[in-house]
Amino acid sequence: MAGDKRVWVVNKSDKDFERTDIDLKKHIILKPFIPMEMPFSIGMKYLNFKGISLVANIEQYFRERKMKQLVIRNAGIGDLLLLEPIIRQLAINGKREMTMLTGFPEVFDYNPYVKKSIRMINRDTIPSDVKFNQFDCYEDLRFWSETCPDRDKKHRTDCYNQKFNIKIDDPEPRLYLSRGEPFAFEKKDGFRYIGICCDGSHEYRRYDYGVELSQYILKQDKKNIVVILGAWNFVPPQNSDRIIDLQGKTAVDDVFDVIRKLDAVVSVDTGLMHVALAMHIPTVALFSIITPELRLSNYRGPYEAIYKKELPCIGCGNFHMAVCKHGDKKKNKDFVPPCLQITPTEIYERIEKLPREFTPRLFFSGEIPVSAPAVISPAQKITLPIIVLNEEKNLPRFIELVMKHPAIGRVVAID
After folding, report:
1. HSE (side-chain half, CA atoms, 13 Å) at 128
2. Which residues pair with 52 in a beta bridge?
3. Are strands 224-229 and 192-197 parallel, antiparallel or unpaired?
4. Who has greater pLDDT, 87 or 14?
5. Is the dihedral angle over the CA atoms 124, 127, 131, 137 positive or is it negative?
6. How far is it, in rounded angstroms, from Cα 26 to Cα 3?
7. Is residue 45 over pLDDT 70?
8. Each residue of 221-260: pLDDT tens digit?
């Protein structure tokens, strides 16, 4: 066969390539499992290696089957949400079957664009039950956001996209929720529930005045209730019947469900801030070492960002920083960097700027939504009668979901 005929080599295993002879070095598939086009004569030499096959028509090869792609990213909830638009677009563009290997699989568990989400205990160890030869290709992003040369200039989603180079139709992150029984968090009518999250993954992102902020919010309005969020007791306990302290008391799925029920959120630059922003819950975002535009620019819901841009050192953490030049929290636990010297008064003024009437942006398992719902006038909306047969306990949740449809104006339940 002519030596200049082009074929594709599909690599199903990354083993045995150490034995490749010098003549083939420049043709080695540097990233295993990515099909590579090459002359037929070169491709034939690859047949000596385990798990290799030649494909004459790569389009037909993947038309007959979905490409199975693994993406590895052991990061926090916020980083994973900023990666989500790319994962969704890959699934749409290439009809790919996406698998996520990550420390917080809950971010993707109910996402209809992700086939499977697998938990990764630490970023240095791939779980033994994950076999790379089960996938056609993979992308290892474990260290990319930390090493991306543009991380101090580009939005985090754009940094990730340097690895994929695709056009993203909708860059706003989506968090899909379970349709199952919601977390037991009941709200009283007439009260405003304000969530606060003061702890962050970096010690120079943490807000140390959580107690003062809680008390100030309560003092401003007797109808305010503070819900304290976080993985552990970062904000010390407070004795008040208008404080709901959920620190360390909720699983990841549960805290998602709590946030969607809140009337407002105050959060440092951390994962739960991104959860609230993705749901369009009105949010006051407290930024310190990271420039807000590098994280917030794709969110279209209501938010207020507090950021001391007048400081000459602001943005010190856009690339990397370990110790604030004004002081070291490890040596002095009472030190508060200038960028986080934000008073409860400043924060509450921003809370008051947030809308009290809003529509949460919620997605549920199995939904692949259209880009925008049609606008229907009240006169055009329909009344939906439903017959209840021994399902009274599920009725409130069912009505809540049905009423979100833009064409439904009223639900009448008949027992």
Report:
1. 0
2. 11
3. parallel
4. 87
5. negative
6. 17
7. no
8. 999 999 999 999 999 999 999 999 999 999 999 999 999 9
* Phi, psi angle pair for 401, to nearest 5°: -70, -45
| pLDDT tens-place string over residues 180-220 | 777 777 899 999 999 999 999 899 999 999 999 999 999 99
CA dist 285 and 353 (Å) reads 13
Average pLDDT (49-77) is 75
Burial (CB count within 10 angstroms: exposed 0-12, middle 13-18, buried 19+), residue 271: buried
277: its two tokens: 């922003």
Report the 10 Å Cβ neighbour count for 363: 17
pLDDT band at 22 (very low <50, low <70, confident <90, very high): very low
Instruction: Name the burial class of residue 379, with classes exposed (0-12), middle (13-18) and buried (19+) by CB atoms within 10 angstroms of its CB.
Output: exposed
- When pLDDT is cut at 50, 70 and 90, the band that residue 31 belongs to is very low
* pLDDT at residue 394, rounded to an integer: 65
Look at residues 361, 406, 400 and name the one whose alpha carbon lies nearest to residue 187.
400
Q: Report residue 283 as tokens.
A: 């949010």
**pLDDT of 58-68, one tens digit each?**
666 666 667 78
Contact 342, 306 (CB under 8 A): yes
Q: Is the CA virtual torsion 182, 183, 187, 193 positive or negative? A: negative
Query: How does 277-287 read in b/e, with b if 16+ C-beta sit within 10 Å?
Result: bbbbbbbbbbb
User: Other CB atoms closer than 10 Å to residue 64's CB: what's the count?
Assistant: 8
Tokens representing 69 are: 């792609």
**Amino acid type, 9:** V
Distance CA 249, CA 13 (A): 43
Q: What are the φ and ψ backbone dihedral angles of 413, each rounded to 5 degrees?
A: -95, 130
Q: Cα(102)–Cα(121) distance, rounded to whole angstroms? A: 8
Reported as half-sphere exposure (CB side, CA atoms, 13 A), residue 104 has a value of 19
Bridge-based pairing of strands 6-11 and 52-55 is antiparallel
Instruction: Return the minimum-mean-pLDDT range out of 86-90, 97-101, 119-123, 346-350.
Output: 119-123
Query: Among the ranges 65-74, 152-161, 386-395, which has the highest mean pLDDT value?
Result: 152-161
Q: Which two three-digit tokens encode residue 40?
A: 């037929």
CA distances from 4 to 22, 38, 305 (A): 21, 9, 59
C-alpha pair distances (Å), 325 with each of 52, 56, 151, 232: 54, 59, 21, 28
Per-residue pLDDT for 375 more than 90? Answer: no
